[in-house]
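Appendix B, Record 12. Input sequence as logged:
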Amino acid sequence: ASRVDAFRDVPGERLLAGLRGKDVVIAFVESYGRDAVEDPGFAAPVDAVLDSGTRELHTAGFATRSAFLTSPTAGGGSWLAHATLLSGLWVDNQRRYVDFVSGDRLTLVGAFRRAGWRAVGVMPANTFDWPEAAFFGYHRVYDAHALGYRGPRFGFSTMPDQYALAAFHRLEYGTAHRGPLFAQLNLTSSHSPWTPLPEYVDWAALGDGTVFGPMARRGDPPEVLFQDSAKVRAAYASSVAYSLRSLVSFVQRYGDEDLVLLVVGDHQPAPVVTGANASRDVPVAMIAHDPAVLDRISGWGWQDGLNPGPTAPVWPMDSFRDRLLSTFER
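Logged structural output:
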């Protein structure tokens, strides 16, 4: 049963007033866990992208803050983490998920929609009908078939994250004469088995994705890669670094003064990467051009930059919805 929803009946004009006119994007980075920024065995490539990204975005006029959230899941079950962050409920198993999507809980998607935003989802992992889309409150969900990709798969991932971001720009973010946009992007390039891996290409060269063809034929097949745990960890770190670099570059190329981007991991990767007793913490970062947005969250205690340090705040993931709605309510 769902907890009492303090925001269920709040009228749209009061919801999210502190973000009025902004384009708010939540990008879930698959398997982006705390170990990706802290494990001395493999975090270096990820830290390098986050630290250079912090500087590059600052140069482009964007400020960044970061912390950690504790996910309800690890090693898989991304949809449970998505549901938890969007609902403010602890959705840690499938039974709770089914209960949640058969209720009337106000999700962040529905809150932005009620407050006047166009709400879309970019979900390249969805290859078949997803009936829950209506419950969450999206105006439109772009699944694998709707994004126009003509290149090869990369393991689990139907398309590289950079392509999914470019398609989001082409289909929604970059369109003329639109109103404010809320978007959830589920990025998949860092999903296991981390082979083969795409590489970053010039945005102008992306086209329909066929440019990625040769990359899908490189690297060890999973059954070979997974015989060497050091190679698995290195491939995992490379995949997360690729996803994060794609996001930073997207903001540099397409972001404007109205963009507010939340970058959040869904869960830690499997124990083959983290070892047996890893935490369930995932990094979270907010990127914004307008100083007023980050002034609003000053009370959150998040650290400067994209790369949260060991003493950054740790919140349970189910606390995020209410924190965001309370902070930006009129």
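The two ends are 29 Å apart (CA to CA).
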